[in-house]
Amino acid sequence: MSPSLSTCSVGQRASEPVVTSWSLLQEGSHGPWTALSEDDKYWARRRKNNMAAKRSRDARRLKENQIAIRASFLEKENSALRQEVADLRKELGKCKNILAKYEARHGPL
């Protein structure tokens, strides 16, 4: 990008180009604000990326919390089902004992 030249001012030699901030703004292949906005573009991209990263972290944290809650629920359910199985096995043992006593007195069914 070559800066635009303006006329020389008082006390300046005619061979020296004068570069103004306006001339920098006017030049550029991407529009009039290219020279001053590259830094702004960078920071806009950084802000956008930071917000996306925060959303990603928040989503991951939410998903991890949901998984932890689900795991806790499943552990409690598993414990309750194991207790139910133990109770049913105990009841089955009692029933088998009653049946064995009955068959001992009255013969097989």
TrEMBL record:
<comment type="similarity">
    <text>Belongs to the bZIP family. PAR subfamily.</text>
</comment>
<dbReference type="GO" id="GO:0005634">
    <property type="term" value="C:nucleus"/>
</dbReference>
<keyword id="KW-0804">Transcription</keyword>
<dbReference type="InterPro" id="IPR046347">
    <property type="entry name" value="bZIP_sf"/>
</dbReference>
<keyword id="KW-0090">Biological rhythms</keyword>
<protein>
    <recommendedName>
        <fullName>BZIP domain-containing protein</fullName>
    </recommendedName>
</protein>
<dbReference type="GO" id="GO:0000978">
    <property type="term" value="F:RNA polymerase II cis-regulatory region sequence-specific DNA binding"/>
</dbReference>
<feature type="coiled-coil region">
    <location>
        <begin position="71"/>
        <end position="105"/>
    </location>
</feature>
<feature type="domain" description="BZIP">
    <location>
        <begin position="39"/>
        <end position="102"/>
    </location>
</feature>
<keyword id="KW-0238">DNA-binding</keyword>
<keyword id="KW-0805">Transcription regulation</keyword>
<keyword id="KW-0175">Coiled coil</keyword>
<dbReference type="InterPro" id="IPR004827">
    <property type="entry name" value="bZIP"/>
</dbReference>
<dbReference type="GO" id="GO:0048511">
    <property type="term" value="P:rhythmic process"/>
</dbReference>
<dbReference type="GO" id="GO:0000981">
    <property type="term" value="F:DNA-binding transcription factor activity, RNA polymerase II-specific"/>
</dbReference>
<dbReference type="Pfam" id="PF07716">
    <property type="entry name" value="bZIP_2"/>
</dbReference>
<dbReference type="InterPro" id="IPR040223">
    <property type="entry name" value="PAR_bZIP"/>
</dbReference>
<keyword id="KW-0539">Nucleus</keyword>
